[in-house]
Amino acid sequence: MIRILFLAANPADTSALRLGEEARAIRERLRAAQHRDQFAVEQEWAVRVGDLQAHLLRHQPHVVHFSGHSSACGQLVLEDSTGRSQPVPADALGQLFATLKDEIRCVVLNACFTETQARGIAASIDCVVGMSRAIRDDSAVAFAASFYQALAFGRSVQTAFELGCGEIGLAGLADHDVPRLVPADGIDPASVYLRGVAPESPP
Known about the structure:
CATH architecture: 3-Layer(aba) Sandwich
Strand content: 15-25%
Number of domains: 1
Structural class: alpha/beta
Number of helices: 6
CATH class: Alpha Beta
Distance between the termini: 19 Å
Helix content: 25-40%
Number of strands: 8
């Protein structure tokens, strides 16, 4: 079973995002895919900086997906104890993934200006997706839905990424060149497949 951990944060002092629509689109595409029984999505909302370690330890994901905002310098923005913005230091986030990399194969940072952060995480994770500049809500939703659909149809991370970018173009949006796929050194995303073992049917 491939476990996808969907982390979402939309602090009170930031603009509203369609995070629920993104989560819904991912679930629907996975449910319609060939290998749907091999994928499970766990969701955590209003994520605080202090929650990150616990969520990763509890869910032991193979894929970590972040949906939300980032700072002007590309730091992910989570919530503090009052629900307001708290950026996550890039080096600390990279170290967290380096420490808890056991089963994580892919990280998707579906937030604006996260390419630099993605490159830091790729020091220890096989495949990381970040955004090279600002991306519209509808483009982010289109990319994510298509990306996970392709994975659940048995396609490689490289193909899933290309189809995600292509979905943005098919929708008539102008952000198809914003997502960036950053592989770890020595990793070919075209050779990385995320497929689990389907649960056995009850007798």
